[in-house]
User: What shape does this take?
Amino acid sequence: MASQKIRVGIPRALLYYKFFPMWTTFFEEIGAKVIVSPKTNKILKDVAVSIAPDEDCYSTKLYFGHVMALKDKVDYLFIPRFSSGGFGKGHEKNVSCPKFIGLAEVLRSVFPDLPEIIMPYFSTAKNNHGKMKFLKYCFSIGSKFTKNPFKIRTAIKKALRNQKEHYQHIQINVDELKKWERSEIVLNETPNLEEGDAPLKVAIIGHSYVLNDPYQSIGIMNKLTIHGVDYITSEQMPRQLIERQMDYLESNMYFEYEREIIGTVMHFLESKTIDRILHLIIFSCGPDSIGGELASRFSRRKPEIPLLQLVIDEHTGTAGTNTRIEAFIDMLRRRKNIKEKEEKIKIRRKIECL
Amino acid sequence: MNFNGKQYYLGVDVGSISTNLAVINEEKEVVESVYIRTEGKPIKSIQRGMAILRDKLGFDLQITGAGATGSARKLTGMIIGADIVKNEITAHALASLEERDDIQTVIEIGGQDSKIIIIRNGVAIDFAMNTVCAAGTGSFLDTQARRLKIPIEDFGEIALESHTPVSIAGRCTVFAESDMIHKQQLGHPLEDILNGLCESMVRNYLNNVAKGKEILPPIMFQGGVAANVGIREAFKKYLEQDVFVPEHYDVMGAIGAAILALEEMEKRPRNSTFYGWNIPDMTFKTSGFECDGCPNICEIVEIRKNGELLARWGSKCGKWDDLSIVHEEKPRQMEKLIVGSD
Assistant: This one.
């Protein structure tokens, strides 16, 4: 029987950037055709901003655009409602942004003509969902596509393995971090350096769906690389370092994805191994309103590593951000050059003393 | 004028409201400067400024290096043939440090942006700029002065005559207007209202731009608004410290650009790309189009000097930076762009 494969659409936004290996593998393994929406672009943004609710954050608004780009091309839309960050130890009590949980319902009620939405609700924090619940969901989704339970089982296994590999690929370990801090390895693109210049070390922090979407992050990574900046993102940070920093907080930071952000800021303020921290904030992001404020307060207490916070929304033009980024790089470069000169003078004095 | 074979550097700072030009010598001393209004036509104002400078200094003055800064720095760089194009924050920080090397805080209020630069031990360590709103900048004062029908030059002097400033909301020009009208209708004298405006602007600046920054003396106040004595006094009152206004407060950005050009030429000696003093006689034309190569629909700007294509910018992918590609006007096909996934 040459029946066509069932098409499942996954919007390329928000949690897609964290969980895409798991999702795409699972659906492909159970015999579905996965269609991912195109990368964010201007037309998609314009559509998104015109139809999304006003109070949503920019990233959530873009999600609406991605759904619109998919709706006529798929049989199912996959919009999971993840109310918790992930599995495993330490994640039991943490929640993700409430907007992610409501997305599927909002979309269905605003656009009744959308294709059927697959929207499993998974919550380790509130409803104490565990592995059993997860498997149950997988089987119930899988049964829409195949009658063979073994196929579903292999699909789940493969999906989880791919997700784990993805995490291992992205997150570095403490040794690698130390090597990066000493400029022995490059984690991302190789910085474009003029002769004799040392790379500037910058940590770019933000949500994974901002860091991985060049349209949302207004191409900052690329600009920094061109100007000789060697960067690390908050997504790459070793998890145990972040969890260690979280213990210093007086109360539990229960927004799962905000932990990465605050943890990275706290780690680098303490270790002082980089030149500057760049925080990309999406306008009207609820968790970031807490995270950003905390980050700026911590940085004020330890002003050696300055923190630059850029707020991005749909109106963000490149002119203002370009000025800030250029000034930011100039400042770092001048500061570093003066520091190096002082070091050299110190060494020379020491030699003269001998 | 006799220039004794000395070296001179030109800096041009084109902002939203004013266009400033400065020529410095090798000792980084200001030889001549020009401050004129941009009036929404940056190219015209650069040419006008260059003409004024040429009349003052003469055709013979040799420019060794030229720098451009300000919000129109890219365009300016193209028009004068600058050797270096840098952002205004770096330029302002450099010029302030040249003026006084022990400076720790720089307050700069221009036409539509205001910034604070924190300097420690002769290095800029932090800065902030106003975000989307122009409240707390020169245009706020301009608008209010126009409403009250007083020339902006007299604003500060009149404000200083007041002893009891009235409180006016400085968050927004719209709120400020309703507050101001209310105070006028109650019978408050003009000078008290002007003084209130000065204070509200300073409060706004300190609560927005300078929020969370450690303001340590010596404090330098520059930019076009520094001409306003009312604002100077209000800053002194709110910071409870002396505020120092440099001699060339209005052209500090241009001085900074000239210093940058000097540093650049010292670092990498070469012949300047500066077009020379006949810039006012050249014709520059800009035109724009929307690229339809991908769904990003970038807005491309083209600039032509005497009919010849000089530069193009605005594309995300960099495709149009290659000047050999000729742009032809075609009807856009939107539908084609949104389909297809990758």
